[in-house]
Amino acid sequence: MSLAALAIEKRAVAYFVVFLLVAGGIGAFFSLGQMEDPEFTVKTGVITTMYPGASPEEVELEVTDRIELAIQEMPQVKYIESFSRPGMSLISVELKAEYWSDRLPQVWDELRRKIRDIEHMLPPGAGRPEVSDDFGYVFGFQLAVVGDGFSDADLEKYAKDIKKELSLVKDVARVDLWGVQDKVIYVNVSQTQLAELGLTNASVQETLSQQNMVVDAGGVDLHRKRFRIAPSGEFTSPKDIANLHVRASFADELSNLTGASDKPVSPERAAELIRIRDIATVEPGYAEPPQTLMRYNRKPAVGISITTSSGVNIVKVGQGIDKRLDEIIPLLPVGIEVHRIHWQSGIVDDAVKGFMINFGEAVAIVLIVLTLAMGWRMGVIIGSSLILTILSSFVLMAVFGIDLQRMSLGALVIALGMMVDNSIVVADGIAVRLQQGMDRKKAAIEAASQPSMPLLGATVIAVMAFYPIFASVEGAGEYCRTLFTVVAISLLVSWLISMTIIPLQCIDMLPEPKEGKTDTDPYGGKFYRVFRSIMERAIRMRLFTIGTLAALLIVALIGFGNVEQMFFPDSSMTKFMVDYWAPEGTRIQTVAEDLKEAEDKFLADERIDSVATFMGAGPPRFYLPVDPESPYQSYAQFIVNVRDFKDIT
Questions:
Q1: Do 244 and 208 form a contact (C-beta atoms < 8 A)?
Q2: Roughly how many angstroms between the first and final C-alpha of the chain, as a whole number?
Q3: What gap in Å lies between CA 598 and CA 581, rounded to an integer?
Q4: Angstrom distance (rounded) from CA 420 to CA 453
Q5: What sign has the CA pseudo-torsion 390, 490, 507, 369?
Q6: What is the pLDDT of residues 520-548, one digit of tens each?
Q7: Which residues touch 557 (CB under 8 Å, ≥6 apart)?
């Protein structure tokens, strides 16, 4: 029994399945994850090793070379790129394309083991190599916290408060701060006073290190309980450091005993209580030079970067963040402002709305064309089958865990024109047979059964045109694989619907032929006569026809070679980026001062909405194709938001 005969025999079951597919498709559409891009694995890791005081050559020979040799033993590595700077080694490792997300954790673990195995070979004074492999995170929500008249410490405090609140939003995976300065306490020692007292810098350093140690002081047993002893004396403020008594180091004591010191300390002077404040000033501050700096519209700022969990609805997450910000911002002091630099949920929402517009236009075009060519009944039948195919595809996308993103939506748009092909063939075959006077049920079964295998073969051929993308192990294959999957789902579903639901609809909706017209040749119209004439002439002049087609194929191949190839299409975001490189060795404070003129020019342009300036390193990855730049004191990047995309071009 054919599929058409089965559907006609089980009419009630078939229509119930249609109802389930419609309801399930609508529900699936609103429950599917909505993302800007498909999940894509960034196969890059960075090993950072600090070697304070070393020259670039020393870093290269003593640290970078040794780590590189260990990494080169791994067969998974595609290439290594290293940078040796004063006091720091930076090694970038790119893995081979075939290592996708499911295999990467094991590779990174092996890399860490390799690094641990050679740590003992690094010189004294070199820090422990740190492996960072989280470059695949896309921080699609970027904020800037600014405040006129507020200190850097104030901005950091309020940014941390906002971070804590946003971390609680559903499906937010991680919130990072950018541009936060490292807090330090400066102890500025007077060398003159040290010399007068017969002390050295080592005395001060040893005193500070011993006082602020966290040690286990044991406990006391009392009856049935044991009480932990917690030693006091940890530093809680700069004042605690200033009041600390300085103890002579072992070297100082030995120097005094042997008389090696130029100014040995007398017993009377040694008995004096010497505090840090007597020989030094103690001031809280920030580490110099700062590692990164950030400004928003020329104002000092702290950045907040937010990334979401995998496979979630970005639009809903954005709504949750918006709601929480609306609750937080009124509680901030007057003058503290929170500005958006990048907001991924708006981009995703526009993409989904764009698909819905394209889908609506496609359905309207199908209905209009079919109505004009074949009558309104045929237009309704084919149009409804298109809608049912899309909704059924949503159901299967939910089953296979495919989100709504750039590739899956693109696949649906590509397949829209092909989804109706099978339905048109079957519906037209039924209409022709009815016009010839055939029984409705027999006409429906015959029109669906006879071309079923040829139509299935044509559908599979159309699907397989996208298979090379799916089979590719390169990055393009991983990024674009849902293109093949969604096209396959939608076209195979369209074939199944044309074999089952279309015959039912035609039986119920197509009219009976008019009296006296059942013997009319359905292919005797003017259109068919012209088409038949063209085909007969092409067959008679077969050599000319084949030659013309071959020439067109050659022209197409030549023309295709001139088509520009790119992995990611040009973005339509209303922003652009500008990289700034100062000469190597330029201080970050100098870079910050130099960029003020550029910021003024940007903000003077009425087409520009805002300018975010990141100095010392690239901003967190906010868009999948954008690789953040490694830390450089002489580097900066502008993210410029414009009011209209057309203003960029």
A1: yes
A2: 60
A3: 13
A4: 17
A5: positive
A6: 666 666 777 888 899 999 999 999 999 99
A7: none
